[in-house]
Structure formats: C-alpha cells, structure tokens
Amino acid sequence: MPEQAVSTLKMLLVEPETLLRRTVSLTARTLGLGQIHEAASMPAAERLLREQAFHGAVISIDCSTATERGYDLALLDLVREGQSSSDAGIPIAVMADHATTELLRELRTRDVTRVILKPFRARVLLDAFAEFEAQRKK
Amino acid sequence: MLAPAIPDDEPDRLAALRELLILDTPPEERLDKIVQFASVEFNVPIALVSLVDSNRQWFKARIGLDACETSREISFCGHAILQPDILLIPDALADPRFADNPLVTGGPMIRFYAGAPVVLPSGFAIGTLCLIDTQPRTLDQVELTILSSLRDLLVEELGKPAEASNA
Fold first, then answer.
1. Phi, psi of A12 (to 5 degrees)
2. Does the distance separating the beta carbons of A123 and B146 come in below 8 Å?
3. What is the CATH number of the domain that holds A115?
4. Which structural domain, as residue segments, surrounds residue A85?
5. Mean of the per-residue pLDDT values for chain B?
6. What is the number of CB-based contacts under 8 A between chain A and chain B?
7. What is the mean pLDDT of residues B57-73?
C-alpha cells in the first residue's frame, strides 16, 4: 500500500462481521485512506447506497443465501443499473466464501474489479480501498 | 535478561486493573474473537490479551499457548506497558534485553513479539494485545496500524459489562 496524503474518498464496506468491519474502518481513518461507511447487512447497505454517493465499495456476498444460484448480487445490480446515488461505474470489490466459475462469470459481467476469498484479512481489504484511490487518479 | 521496570503509577495502575474484576475470570467469546482475528490477520501462531498483575502476567484471552500466566519478571508485556507505542521486537535472540529470557531460550521459543499497550480511558496501562511468532519477522506501518485498531476495539470491549457483550 503506497504512502499517500489524506484521501477524500467516500467508500462503502458491506460486511456482517463486526470485528473485521470496524478494524478496517478504524485503520483506514488512521492511515488517511478515506472515509469508510459501514453496513452490516444487505438492507442497511441498500439504504446507504440509495441515500449517499460513494467512490467505491467492498461488498461481502452471502454464499449461503437461499436463492436459486446460491448467492445474492442485488447490491451490485443496484449500483450497476444506476439505481443508487453513486456513479454506476464505481469500482467494486467482492468478498466471497468461495468462487465458482458461474459466480466469477457473473461478477465479470458486473465489472467487479477484485474478488477477495476467505480468509478475509483487514490488510487485503485496505489494499482494495487503496487501489480505488489509485484508479481514481489515473 | 532485563526484567521490566515497575512504572511510577504502579499502585494506581494495579487498582485500575483490579477494578475491572477481570483477573482469573473464565474466557469470554468477545475477547477470544479478538485474539483469533489477530492470529489470522498477522499469520502468527500465538496471540494474547495479557494483563500485567503485580507479580505475573495473566492471559485473559489466548490462542496458541497453553499457559494461562507467566511471571512478570520474564514477561515481554511488562516492558510493553512502559511505553505509549507498540513494543516491536523483530528478533528476540538479537535483542540483549530478551536474548537469554527463558521464554526465548525455552518454550514457547519467542523470536518475534509485538505488544500494543492496553491503556484504559483513565490513562493506566493494564496489559497488552500481543502477537508472538517463533520466527523473526517485523510489521510494516499498515500492520502496526491494524494492531493499534484491534487494541482500541479491545479497550472498548473491556469497558462494556461482560454479560451485555456476550448477549
């Protein structure tokens, strides 16, 4: 992760595990990586996405959900279809328990910039947010 | 080996520790989660919440270590509570303060140590959140900041009633 000045990025982290979510948020603030808004659930994330504009998002998708395909990409669709307050093309990284060929294909069609698999580490999520900043500067 | 110094505020520090009513209590999931997270995050075999009592360090939460306490005289954490920043020992064998420490020359064969002092809102350092490895290594600035964040979350947890946090 490169040294950088304080970022003005406003980002969203959707992750149900409190310890991971709060560690990333606190550390990003200390490192000046930007402002990370936290959502512990899909409904909370959906509300935030409708109300506020973000420069990027890291979204944990629930691979145990009871949908037909076994995972729920509704938040990604909300953004990419322009139904959120954010630009539809914001960078999005996805956290998943495991990745099937089908899931990877679906993520690719939704322009997901990075897939993060278990074990989830705060360092990896912070690197993803730092990449968002780097992409914005390009 | 250099035994840790006793801080100037020792009587008040010990009083603050004992007021928490946490010494010699059973493990708590909320604190166990923090050391489990630290062990995975930093890829270390041992992570501890160590509380520095008058003559011992006692581990409220631990992963990778069977012992529940050691004497304060040989503790790394006794040194860590003496400074405001994280105590980072990349290679204990190369550090004259610790090279002949029995925790280095014998089990658990400590080579790497990083201890973030746990400072209560009252200002008293009661212990550490620490990482231990049997191989030399170090932490970069991002990792040090992550450890500080985890320590801050630990301090928050210690300020909550145990029952409420476990609910």
1. -120, 135
2. yes
3. 3.40.50.2300
4. 10-132
5. 96
6. 41
7. 98
Nearest C-alpha of chain A: how many angstroms from B25? 23
Contact A26 B153 (CB under 8 A): yes
> CB–CB of A58/A14 below 8 Å?
yes
Q: What is the pLDDT of residues B88-134, one digit of tens each?
A: 999 999 999 999 999 999 999 999 999 999 999 999 999 999 999 99
Q: CATH code at B74? A: 3.30.450.40
Q: How many independent structural domains does chain B possess?
A: 1
| Predicted pLDDT of residue B167 | 39
Contact A1 B142 (CB under 8 A): yes
Domain annotation covers residue A4? no
Q: Which of B37, B41, B153 sits opposite A123 (nearest CB)?
A: B41
